[in-house]
Design brief:
Elements (H helix, E strand, L loop, with lengths): L12 H4 L5 H6 L3 E3 L2 H14 L4 E7 L4 E3 L5 E3 L15 H25 L4 H6 L1 H10 L8 E4 L2 H10 L4 E9 L6 E4 L4 E5 H4 L6 H5 L1 E6 L17 E8 L13 H4 L5 H11 L18
Parallel strand pairs: 1-10
Antiparallel strand pairs: 2-6, 3-4, 5-9, 6-10, 7-8, 8-9
Helix pairs in contact: 4-6, 4-11
């Protein structure tokens, strides 16, 4: 994934009126936001000042940093398949992770066929689509990172499990084109879950979920180009107390993770029994696991 090369109108730009290079955006501290209304105003300014980018959001209850070779601390957003906190990731480990991803993909497609779930033929044609479902339902590590097109969804994720502050990260990507966008020019892939998930998959529709990653999707060496932090536009810290009001409410976890999600039930069994066969699921609600 190619990094943003031009200077960015970012979170600190709202106060200073200046644009910043990406390295300054990555290393800077987030700007504190007290209310959802204030957040919407800040994002509106950032969106207007970066017309060449489409903004996507990621909410987290904690910050994650890494050190560069120069000893500088910056934000990092590697896909789960490339994460190895505190140590290097070997090519053999990556091959093993991709082998597991392939097995889980085959198992998921097989279960979709047995259960009569719509769209399994389309998933079989594009392996990235199956990976996107496995990532979104947290079955196994994949080359993708979850983001949302909904600011309210991202803010809810940031604050639902936070104690004092949650964090919103804003990324800029090229305009998506259809259910799956392969951007050769920017070396990235953007998958719109609402377009590729069957209606039995409730979670992506409530979360307005997208999956992003580097294209080509399979890389057997960890490299900075795999970090979607290269597309970071802005970041904010959200105060838990007083952020929501009578007009703007948080989306509760039970709404973000619907109980009647058949795909969640299938994926939960895949995650816990990756080497064994699965039973046929034709009826029955999914059990929520937060």
């Amino acid at each position: 994934m190619l990094r943003i090369r031009s200077n960015i109108w970012s979170h600190h730009s709202i106060e200073t009126g200046k644009k910043y290079p990406l390295k300054d955006v990555l290393s800077s501290m987030p700007v504190e936001i007290e209310t959802f209304r204030e957040l919407v105003k800040a994002v509106a300014e950032i969106s207007y000042r970066n017309p060449e980018q489409v903004l996507f959001f990621r909410g987290q209850s904690a910050e994650y940093w890494k050190k560069t070779e120069d000893g500088e601390r910056i934000n990092s957003f590697y896909p789960s398949i490339y994460r190895s906190p505190g140590r290097s990731l070997t090519e053999g480990e990556l091959e093993s992770r991709y082998a597991k991803l392939q097995k889980q993909s085959e198992a998921l497609l097989g279960e979709f066929k047995k259960s009569g779930i719509q769209g399994h033929d389309k998933l079989a044609k594009f392996p990235e689509l199956t990976w996107a479902i496995l990532q979104h339902y947290e079955v196994c590590p994949t080359p993708f990172v979850d983001v949302s097109h909904s600011l309210r969804v991202a803010a809810s994720f940031a604050l639902n499990d936070a104690t004092e502050f949650g964090y919103i990260y804003i990324f800029g990507f090229p305009h998506p084109n259809g259910s799956i966008t392969y951007s050769v020019e920017h070396e990235l892939i953007n998958i719109r879950l609402l377009s590729i998930c069957p209606p039995e998959a409730q979670r992506p529709y409530f979360q307005e979920g997208f999956l992003v990653g580097t294209f080509p999707s399979k890389r057997l060496r960890k490299h900075p180009s795999l970090d979607i932090g290269g597309r970071l536009i802005a970041k904010f810290s959200l105060k838990v107390n007083g952020f929501w009001d009578e007009h703007f409410h948080a989306i509760p976890p039970e709404a973000l993770y619907p109980a009647d999600d058949l795909i969640k039930k299938i994926c939960s069994e895949l995650a816990t029994k990756p080497e064994s066969g699965l039973t046929h699921h034709s009826t029955g609600p999914a059990r929520k696991t937060a």
